[in-house]
Design brief:
alpha/beta; 18% strand
């Protein structure tokens, strides 16, 4: 009888979590390039075995995240571990980033990233490709926010909180949380093991799922770090907007936060207005929220008002004005493309003179999708003709025996079909009865 021991299984491939050891470097344009051939970016298809490719990408993403975190810390952000008070980094925790001087800020920007991205990452297709690390990460956003004013009378930059919507699964052997994709690509006992099993050991207390993490950010993190009188600007990217809006839509929640939230930017989200339950939160969306959608139009074009626009295929039923992000394809790139517009709007809201209160202006919606070109065939030439061949039935009227002369000569007309070899007689109409 054949028996294979565990030791006989092929070992899981191991790659160093270091850019240089992986064979890459960061060039003068802040782009990741191959050391062997600087003209090439990151090469995912290292092998025909997908496990080898995924393990290499896991190491690459971890290496890039180290660089991003170092840059965020260089901008004055501090990594905090959730649950708050976690001192032992080997215990289950979720990392987030918070401005070091956030306690003294009169305005704080809270950013909820996509649920598929690592902490600090906007789009790996930009980080590892054309554009570079700063452009494709939160480093670019934090840098621009630190150039803004907190209010019309407070010229200090706002505080910043970067939530961690993408990395909520705890890996005990790595002493860190990872995304769903990284959880599957993380080290296993062998290269042929069929994935990893998700157990309660992979959950972080208070942050077990996306809804719990959003709630923890608002009810624990903001309450702990932010001054009670500070205003909040909320940015939700992609599907994170679903969970943020669901939380704020709760009547008991909105009663607490409605006076503190200055505005809400929905970037690439598609949470439908008919899913809202709280009328008060719906009014807030109309007056102090904006959505930025994927669109082929230039960034900043107004696609719809709060009531939607039936003249466009873009989803606009979001309960707030909808603008083009300037990114036609990828949700992860919407914030990158629309960042100047979004951050300028946040600054406009923040610098509204005290006592006036910001409200969205009424937009005159003129936008409609351009008509699609008619490149199809001209079917007008395929109409039935009174004389000659009937193209729809592939029969000829003369051969069908429906003519007056044919009816006089023979009351039982002949059925004649047309095929490749010409006309073939099939007998009289009542043949075979």
């Amino acid at each position: 009888m054949f028996r294979r021991k565990w030791a006989g299984l092929p070992a899981d491939p191991d790659f160093p979590i270091d850019l240089k050891e992986l064979g890459y470097f960061i060039n003068e344009d802040d782009e990741v390039r191959s050391i062997d051939n600087p003209n090439y970016y990151f090469k995912y298809f290292l092998s025909r075995n997908p496990r080898w490719n995924d393990r290499q990408r896991y190491a690459m993403n971890q290496s890039l995240q180290k660089v991003i975190w170092e840059r965020l810390e260089g901008l004055g952000l501090k990594k905090e571990l959730l649950p708050l008070g976690t001192a032992d980094p080997t215990k289950p925790h979720v990392p987030i980033f918070v401005s070091g001087d956030i306690a003294h800020k009169s305005r704080v920007v809270v950013i909820f990233g996509e649920t598929v991205q690592d902490l600090g990452v906007l789009a790996h297709r930009v980080i590892g490709g054309a554009g570079g690390i700063t452009k494709g990460s939160m480093v670019s956003i934090v840098s621009e926010l630190q150039k803004q004013h907190s209010s019309a009378s407070d010229f200090r930059p706002p505080g910043i909180i970067l939530a961690n919507m993408g990395e909520l699964l705890w890996l005990p052997e790595c002493h860190r949380t990872v995304s769903n994709t990284a959880f599957i690509a993380a080290p296993m006992k062998s290269a042929v093991h069929d994935g990893r099993m998700l157990t309660p050991k992979n959950m972080v207390p208070g942050n077990e799922n996306l809804k719990a993490h959003v709630r923890y950010i608002f009810e624990e993190v903001i309450e702990h770090f932010v001054d009670d009188h500070a205003g909040l600007d909320i940015i939700a990217i992609g599907d994170a907007s679903d969970f943020v809006e669901q939380y704020l839509d709760l009547p008991s929640v909105w009663q607490v936060w409605n006076k503190r939230i200055n505005c809400l930017a929905i970037v690439g989200g598609v949470y439908a207005v008919w899913d809202l339950q709280n009328e008060a939160f719906g009014e807030f969306l109309k007056k102090k929220a904006r959505a930025y959608a994927r669109s082929t139009e230039p960034a900043g074009i107004v696609l719809s008002g709060p009531d939607g626009n039936p003249k466009t295929s873009t989803f606009t039923q979001q309960g707030c004005p909808v603008f083009s992000s300037g990114e036609p394809y990828y949700t992860e790139c919407t914030f990158i493309a629309a960042a100047p517009r979004i951050l300028d709007w946040l600054q406009e809201v923040a610098t509204t003179p005290e006592g006036e209160g910001y409200v969205n202006p009424e937009f005159q919606i003129l936008y409609a999708d351009p008509p699609e070109p008619d490149d199809g065939p001209d079917w007008s030439q395929c109409q039935d003709k009174k004389e000659g061949k009937d193209e729809n039935t592939n029969f000829t009227k003369e051969a069908s025996g429906t003519g007056a002369e044919d009816q006089k000569e023979n009351k039982k007309p002949r059925l004649v079909a047309v095929d490749r070899d010409g006309i073939q007689e099939h007998g009289e109409a009542d043949a075979g009865k």
